[in-house]
Amino acid sequence: MVADQAALDAVIAAFAAGTGPVAVDAERASGYRYGQRAYLIQLRRAGAGTALIDPIACPELAPLGEALAEAEWVVHAATQDLPCLAEVGMRPQRLFDTELAGRIAGFARVGLGPMTENVLGYSLAKEHSAVDWSTRPLPEPWLRYAALDVEVLVELRDALEAELTGQGKLEWALEEFASIAAAPRPAPRVDPWRRTSGLHKIRRRRQLAAVRELWQARDRAAQERDVSPGRVLSDAAIVAAALAMPVNLPALQAVAGFGPRAHRRQLEQWLAALDRARAIPEAQLPPAAAPHEGPPPPRAWAEKDPVAAARLTGAKAAVTQLAEQLKLPAENLITPDLVRRVSWEPPADLGTPAVGAALRALGARHWQVDLVAPVVAAAFAEAVTAT
């Protein structure tokens, strides 16, 4: 493991002098630690070999990122790893995402193991995929496992590039990769507590407030202790407490997830969260549904706007059929949200150029517009005729 400045300087020099693409991977400690920071970064490049970097001991890796600025990064499932790499100063200018390449090429299973086996004929060991990568020192078998994730990544990239070229899809994939590399860091999620598993069981706004207060209290505790929130209090326990709304410690202990072994101080902080929810004025309670931009849920379209519902039904069917013909997932052909938005608020002119411009304005890539706009425009015209 590279865990000091001298070793890191040597790696930077070696990888700057290397040639060709650089394979990049990161290991997080999801389920163990708070947040999604990287606890191990793996690199491999021709002429430089493989490096395993400890980003906790070496938290400032911008010089390494600068040394790799001209190289194409090969990453599997880039949207998962790029945020934690950006936190330490590493951002690609050019990218090849082997998972996304597999999707566009039409592979049914696009995990790194299945892709490596199907495309290259190698079987990757995956026995350490769910370990706690914040462990120090990292055991030698874990390090070997981590190194394997970048060992054949460039070879996989080359094979997928040939496959995409043969299918006439390489330019589609390259445009997708460029979009991912250029994308800004995502904005913080609005009302993240609404992602609590089991929230659909909650019917009353006061109970929603209890979920929010418990979730926020759990998040603060998890951040202070640097542990995964689920290890502090489960989602199921939060929902159960919100449904029961216990008013004292014995009643809280009777709720599933708050058993007799819970520390009294912990129980008191959960009860305090419930008390805060009880004290919120009615007018300040959270709304039953999350605020959102864009069209209403599709299930309401038939009543609100039957013509829009017909447009959406036709557009979805057309996109699905086209995706099957092209042998790629419909959600990669065009984001479903874009289809909903353009179906709800279509351009005044329903011809292909206007529909294409509307999709492009919503964020669709050029290759997607070229393929999708004609079939969506035809579906819109058919919906108008039918209604």
Primary descriptors:
single chain, 387 residues, alpha/beta, Nucleotidyltransferase, domain 5, DNA polymerase, domain 1, 5-stranded mixed β-sheet, 19 helices, nucleic acid binding, 3'-5' exonuclease activity
Structure write-up:
The protein is α/β, with parallel strands linked by helices. The chain folds into 3 domains: 5-182, Nucleotidyltransferase, domain 5 (2-Layer Sandwich); 192-284, DNA polymerase, domain 1, CATH 1.10.150; 298-386, HRDC domain (DNA polymerase, domain 1, Orthogonal Bundle). The protein contains 19 helices and 5 strands. The protein has helices at residues 5-17, 62-67, 78-87, 98-105, 112-120, 140-151, 153-167, 170-182, 205-225, 229-232, 235-244, 249-253, 264-279, 301-304, 306-326, 330-333, 336-344, 352-361, 366-386; strands spanning 19-28, 38-46, 49-53, 72-75, 94-97. A 5-stranded mixed beta sheet has the order 3-2-1-4-5, sandwiched between helices. A hairpin with a 2-residue loop joins strand 2 and strand 3. Helix 4 runs parallel beside helix 7, helix 9 packs antiparallel against helix 11 and helix 15 runs antiparallel to helix 17 (336-344). The protein starts with a helix and ends with a helix. The relative contact order is 0.08. It holds the Pfam family HRDC. This is Ribonuclease D. One of its GO terms (molecular function) is nucleotide binding.
